[in-house]
Structure formats: C-alpha cells, structure tokens
C-alpha cells in the first residue's frame, strides 16, 4: 500500500481533539504531566528510578519508570486504546512513550534486558480481541533493539470468588493469577535483567505478583524493572 493511500485511510489526526497533525497533538501532549524519577515504593525522588534499599521487600521491583501522571487526559487515552482498538492511539502513545524513555536516565537500565509485556487473561483477550501492551512492547523492543517475549507469563481468568474481593483483599491474598507458561526459557543468564511493560499502575498488585512468579522461578537475585505508561499522582506533587 502506498503512503498517500495509507494517509487517506488513516489520516494523521489527534485521537483526543480530532485536529489534523499528529496522532496525539502538541496541545494534548501538554496536558500530560510527566512523572519525575522516583522510588516505586515510597515515591520520593530517586535519580535512577531505583527503589531505595530500605524501601524494598522480597518481591519489590528494582527500578520503575513511569511516563505520566494518571489524570483525565491519560484516562481518555487509555479508554480509547484499551477498548476501541484505535490504531492511531497505539502508534501515538508508543512514539511518545519511547521518546520519553529515551530522554530519561532510565534508558541505561535497558541494556541487555528482556522485555515482557504484562499479560491479560484469556477472557479479557477474547473480549478485547488483543493485548495492546504487546504492540507497545514490540515498538520499544524495535527502537532499543531488545528481545521481547510475549508467550511467557500468563494470567488465569479471575473466578467469581476473586472478583468479589476488594482491591485490598486481592492485594493481600496469597493467590497469584500469574504463572510461567514457557518452560523453554530455562536459561535467562544471557539477559542482565527483565523489564515488564504495563500501561497503568494502580495498587501495584499486577507487577508485584509477576515479580514474585519470576523470582520464584529464576531466583531472588534476578533484577526486575518495569516501564509503565501512567500512574496516579505522586505524593511529592499532592503535598504542594
Ligand atoms: Zn489533540
Ligand atoms: Zn523509597
């Protein structure tokens, strides 16, 4: 397909305000608030995005990059991208996210890492038809020249017993909906660490449970980092 025809079928239009130009226009981009490098756990500033040693527990992530604060603009982007399968929003969001990672000090953690998108359950995949994180992760992999493994960690469908639990009960529960499927990845020694890629951090439940599965399989010394597009307002901003 040639480029003019592609532009006709998929015009470069801002998916938020519908103005022609970029998939996410400069005005809408300005409404996204950048997160500062912080410790994933206490959320105080931490220059290399590393979790402070005194903040870490056994299943804590080592370094977590968060792109932007979760606000009304992030919420509309996520809604479009998760439920409407808007091709343009995935391209716009990937480009923006890659640009933000690339300009940050987190990019040094990406040397020789294995990128793993956070999985969704089969029920959710059937409902949406796709896991958008796989697309975004493959774009990050291509840009930074990193290996990506999709069929690696799986998520069980939540049963009604789990669905009835409150967020706190779910978080504290010993049940882990995530498991490692691909036993062929027995040797991960060629990678320096594993980087999980997720869209939004709410309670941190997903990332912590996946970290636990990985550390149980590959040892407590395995370094696990994460790239996450959005997270709620950090304490350093709410105290102002
Ligand atoms: Zn716009
Ligand atoms: Zn801390």
Overview of this structure, please?
- The chain is α/β, with parallel strands linked by helices and 240 residues long.
- The protein has a single domain, classed as Rossmann fold, CATH 3.40.50.
- The protein contains ten helices and seven strands.
- It has helices spanning 3-9, 26-30, 72-83, 87-102, 122-128, 132-144, 160-163, 167-172, 205-218, 235-238; strands at residues 63-69, 113-117, 147-148, 153-155, 178-180, 193-201, 224-231.
- The strands form two sheets. The protein has a five-stranded parallel β-sheet with strand order 1-7-6-2-3, sandwiched between helices. It has a two-stranded antiparallel sheet with strand order 4-5.
- Helix 9 links the parallel strand 6 and strand 7.
- The longest helix has 16 residues, at 87-102.
- It is globular, with a radius of gyration of 18 Å.
- Residues 1-6 have low confidence and may be disordered.
- The structure holds zinc ion (2 copies).
- One zinc ion (ZN) is lined by residues 39, 41-42, 44, 51-52, 55.
- One zinc ion binds at residues 39, 41-42, 44, 51-52, 55.
């Amino acid at each position: 397909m040639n480029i003019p025809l592609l532009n006709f079928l998929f015009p470069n239009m801002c998916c938020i305000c519908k103005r022609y130009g970029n998939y996410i226009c400069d005005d809408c981009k300005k409404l996204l608030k950048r997160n500062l490098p912080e410790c994933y756990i206490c959320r105080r500033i931490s220059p290399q995005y590393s979790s402070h040693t005194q903040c870490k527990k056994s299943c804590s992530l080592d370094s977590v990059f968060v792109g932007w604060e979760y606000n009304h603009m992030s919420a509309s982007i996520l809604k479009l991208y998760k439920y409407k399968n808007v091709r343009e929003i995935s391209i716009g969001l990937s480009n923006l996210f890659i640009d933000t990672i690339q300009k940050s000090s987190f990019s040094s953690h990406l040397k020789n890492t294995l990128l793993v998108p956070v999985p969704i359950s089969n029920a959710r995949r059937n409902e949406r038809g796709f896991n958008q994180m796989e697309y975004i992760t493959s774009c990050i992999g291509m840009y930074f020249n990193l290996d990506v493994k999709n069929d690696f960690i799986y998520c069980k469908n939540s049963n009604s017993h789990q669905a009835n639990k409150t967020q706190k009960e779910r978080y504290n529960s010993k049940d882990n909906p995530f498991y490692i499927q691909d036993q062929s990845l027995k040797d991960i020694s060629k990678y320096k660490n594993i980087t999980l890629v997720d869209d939004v951090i709410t309670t941190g439940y997903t990332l912590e449970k996946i970290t636990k599965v990985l550390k149980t399989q590959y040892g407590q010394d395995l370094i696990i980092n994460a790239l996450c597009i959005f997270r709620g307002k950090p304490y350093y901003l709410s105290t102002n």
